[in-house]
Design a protein that fits this description.
Layout (H helix, E strand, L loop, with lengths): L3 H11 L2 H9 L7 E6 L7 H9 L4 E6 L16 H18 L2 E4 L17 H8 L1 H15 L3 E4 L9 H17 L15 E5 L19 E3 L12 H9 L19 E8 L29 H17 L3 H21 L2 H26 L2 E6 L3 E3 L3 E9 L5 E7 L5 E3 L2 E3 L13 E2 L8 E8 L2 E8 L5 E3 L3 E5 L2 E5 L6 E10 L5 E4 L5 E4 L3 E5 L7 E9 L2 E2 L1 E6 L7 E6 L1 E7 L7 E5 L6 H7 L3 E4 L2 H5 L1 H4 L4 E4 L3 H4 L1 H15 L3 E4 L18 E3 L16 E2 L29 E4 L3 E3 L1 E2 L12 E6 L2 E6 L3 H6 L3 H10 L5
Parallel strand pairs: 1-2, 1-4, 2-3, 4-5, 9-17, 19-28, 29-30, 29-31, 31-32, 32-39
Antiparallel strand pairs: 3-14, 5-7, 6-7, 8-10, 10-13, 11-15, 12-13, 15-16, 18-20, 20-23, 21-24, 22-23, 24-25, 24-28, 26-27, 33-35, 34-37, 36-38, 38-39
Length: 787
């Protein structure tokens, strides 16, 4: 991870003042507001948004339903609410690149609006989110942001992700609801002017739209280039998308023309032909003067437009840009102050936005630089933190800075003291604006030619408030196997706060705990019955919280908080004999779970994989999810693994995506093709009926797999099912989502020489994390030697 100074240097070099000013000038040229809507972080059409923002000056925003917490993680082990917290930060950094405001339908980690896993139906999705809850939040967002245009990312058609379909259905409904006085919120109504749909298919690696897209009524051109950099718009879009690292986003775009984006006008409340997204509505500050009732402020609006035009045309002459922008501020303020009440609802928010944009332009044009950073990112209520500021007034007449603090905070000199009642930071904050940072931040007031403007400047390392009474328990979930002699779980205790606090455990009846240097030894009674048990930690006699600090070099720090407790699954799992090697890529913990249930398991290094003598000491080898992509030594070891399998080893491969370096002809011992688009090759209903196709030993030894092993599954049955395979493979299971044909590629077994290859697309690692008994029994069978 780079040092803080290296990070600052890299950011500084990437954003030279000249380009910053050029991009800050672009939003001055339009008052149109365009909102993209989607279901997940990364659903936004980044190249199109870059063209709208940096070429057309349109004010852009993104409304997203979920935090993507049900997805996969390409860079770490965060899952569930922790992944949602990380993806929130990634989405915010993606917004920084585009200058885009961000709204979330989901407001907290336990919200019903959540990424609950893949869905094939918008109706199912809205049923789980809560249709009323979703519409209420969507109307609140629209009435707050006041977009002129809404454009969902995907179509509501069969073959598309149900979350996407739900957001597109809701976008249609919100057009009427946001403008309906009978739809009650504490916000005034707002009439969106246009609803566009993409006039292209959303099919690809994941989706397969059944219906063709609607005809294009208008096209956003995108084959031109950004004039200062020469980049095409998709290249700028990828600079934003590259921050979605947990999803493996960021694709290099070669030089050359980009692409156009055809749109279909699905609903309109303006007159005129559909020639551009802004057709039929005022495009500039000056155009607002033509609105009915704007006569009292028409001169001020037109004068403001003249000054804005002059500021833009003065680039790159910094002083003239600043002078004209300051004049524009005067006229915009005059128009705002004299705006007729009947017109205020339609234009006041546009003028507010222009004042914020002009302030940014003036700061950059005058070369005013203000920086603030704290000595740490993670703080507790009532604690102190050191604040360092750097101010360069540039060519401004005067520059004054004020530290804008949350209520209850104080500052003395270079110390900031948090209020004792400061709440814990919400990792799921509902709104983000790159140029309107939350407190604490610096307010920089600049005077130029008699005009004063104030620019908020965010701290370079945003403070994250964490609970004072906390403790980390490792592991947070564990298992005991009735068929293994062990009845004790070692629980490590760390990050105990306050440092002098006492900690004790609330235990199930009959259980005991002994304190040791590392934490506790928790012992279950000898006759413990199968089931789930919870152990809760108490700090100073009160329930405590566990905090996961999330730090990656591509995003700001964040933290995820939940109750400090351990869930222990007591299962009845028969284990085979033999040594197990595990090849993981940091995307699952299957190796740890195998060890927890009593298997003799060792994590294999690249050096281990390169040694056939070492491989020969193992009876079974399990390849974790995505490992073919993220374990560099694994691809080179494939031929040796094939020879090891032929000599009698049991090779188990957990699900991979087609793009995870999975060559169907060379990676598996016999040909095995993974299906795509993935929507066609997955079963999303976690309760879908599973039919066992035969009595293969993999389903009978050492555990007899039956109907109860498929109970209690979460998220889905499996994904990235095999599409086709060599006749050597035998499919063992059949399952399907409602109304679909059965899929048989979830579990395949082939005898390879004296050994065996088992490939499964069941989402077993997720079931193990959620302590689903059947997942452990299945894995125990998979690592058994060929019979």
């Amino acid at each position: 991870m780079p040092t803080p100074d290296q990070t600052l240097i890299a950011h500084d070099r990437a954003r030279p003042r000249l380009m910053e000013l050029w991009w800050a000038l672009r939003p001055l040229t339009s008052v149109v507001r365009f909102m993209q809507t989607g279901a997940h972080p990364d659903d936004e059409i980044s190249g199109m948004l870059a063209a709208l923002a940096f070429r057309d000056g349109i004010n852009i925003s993104y409304a997203c339903s979920t935090r993507g917490e049900g997805g996969q993680n390409d860079i770490g082990t965060e899952a569930g609410r922790d992944l949602g917290a990380l993806r929130t930060r990634e989405m915010e950094r993606a917004c920084d690149i585009l200058g885009m405001r961000m709204y979330w339908h989901s407001t907290h980690p336990d919200d019903t609006i959540t990424d609950f896993g893949f869905s094939k139906s918008g109706q199912e999705t809205l049923g789980r989110w809560g249709r009323e809850r979703t519409m209420l939040r969507f109307v609140e967002i629209v009435r707050t942001e006041k977009p002129d245009i809404i454009c969902p990312t995907f179509l509501d058609v069969p073959g598309q992700h149900g979350h996407h379909r739900a957001m597109t259905e809701a976008a249609h409904a919100v057009m009427a609801a946001a403008a309906d006085p009978a739809f009650s919120t504490n916000l005034p109504i707002w009439q969106v002017k246009k609803l566009y749909l993409p006039a292209w298919s959303g099919a690809g690696q994941a989706y397969d739209d059944d219906l063709p897209p609607p005809p294009a009524t208008m096209t956003i051109p995108g084959k031109d280039r950004e004039p200062m950099t020469g980049w095409n718009w998709n290249r700028i879009g990828e600079q934003s998308r590259a921050y979605h690292r947990t999803q493996g986003m960021g694709r290099w775009k070669s030089a050359g023309p980009g692409q156009d984006w055809p749109l279909h006008l699905a609903e309109s409340h303006v007159d005129g032909p559909d020639e551009a997204v802004w057709t039929g509505m005022p495009r500039t500050v000056g155009d607002l003067a033509a609105l009915p009732g704007a006569e009292p402020i028409a001169d001020a609006l037109q004068s403001a437009q003249s000054a804005i035009d002059a500021a833009v045309d003065s680039f790159p002459h910094f002083a003239r840009v600043a002078d004209n922008a300051a004049e524009a501020v005067t006229h915009v303020r005059a128009a705002h102050a004299a705006c007729p009440v009947a017109l205020s609802h339609e234009i006041s928010h546009r003028l507010d936005a222009k004042l914020i944009q002009l302030a940014q332009v003036i700061r950059l044009a005058l070369g005013v630089e203000a920086r603030a950073r704290t000595s740490t990112a993670f703080v507790e209520a009532g604690s102190e933190v050191k604040l360092t500021t750097e101010i360069d007034p540039g060519t401004a007449s005067t520059v004054e800075t004020t530290l804008n603090l949350p209520e209850g905070w104080t500052s003395t000199g270079d110390e900031v003291v948090l209020g004792s009642e400061t709440p814990v930071s919400n990792p799921y904050r509902t709104f983000y604006d790159p140029i309107a940072p939350a407190a604490p931040h610096l307010d920089v007031t600049i005077a130029h030619h008699g005009t004063k403007i104030t620019v908020p400047v965010a701290c370079e390392n945003e403070l994250v408030v964490i609970p004072r009474e906390r403790v980390s328990l490792t592991p947070s979930a564990s298992i005991l196997n009735i068929n293994a002699p062990n009845r004790t779980i070692m629980l490590a205790v760390s990050d105990l706060s306050p440092a002098d606090a006492t900690i004790d455990l609330a235990l199930p009846s009959g259980w005991s705990a002994e304190r040791n240097a590392a934490g506790f030894a928790i012992t279950a009674p000898a006759d413990v019955e199968a089931g789930l048990y919870r152990v809760e930690a108490r700090v100073n006699g009160k329930p405590a919280e566990t905090v996961r600090l999330i730090e990656y070099d591509h995003v700001a720090q964040t933290a995820s908080t939940q109750r400090a407790e351990v869930t222990i699954g007591v299962f009845d799992v028969a284990l085979p004999e033999g040594r197990v090697g595990y090849v993981g890529a940091g995307n699952d913990r299957v190796g740890e779970w195998l060890g927890a249930m009593g298997a003799d398991v060792t994590s294999l290094s690249d050096d281990d994989l390169a040694s056939e003598a070492t491989l020969a000491t193992y009876d079974a080898i399990v390849i974790g999810i995505f490992a073919m992509r993220f374990r560099p030594g694994l691809t080179d070891a494939v031929p040796a693994l094939h020879r090891w399998t032929e000599a009698g080893g049991t090779l188990v491969t957990l699900y991979h995506r087609p793009w995870d370096n999975w060559d169907p002809d060379t990676v598996p011992p016999k040909r095995l093709e993974i299906g795509q688009p993935s929507l066609r090759w997955r079963v999303t209903d976690e309760a879908a009926t599973v039919t066992q196709l035969n009595d293969h030993s993999t389903l009978s030894s050492p555990n007899l797999i039956g109907a109860t092993d498929w109970d209690g599954w979460v998220k889905e049955r499996g994904l990235y099912f095999a599409k086709s395979w060599d006749p050597a493979y035998t499919p063992l299971l059949s399952m399907s989502d409602p109304g679909e044909d059965p899929l048989t590629g979830a579990l395949l077994v082939a005898d390879i020489g004296k050994g065996r290859h088992i490939h499964t697309s069941l989402i077993l690692h997720h079931q193990m994390e959620n302590l689903v008994p059947g997942a452990f029994r299945l894995m125990a069978n998979f690592i058994a030697a060929r019979q």
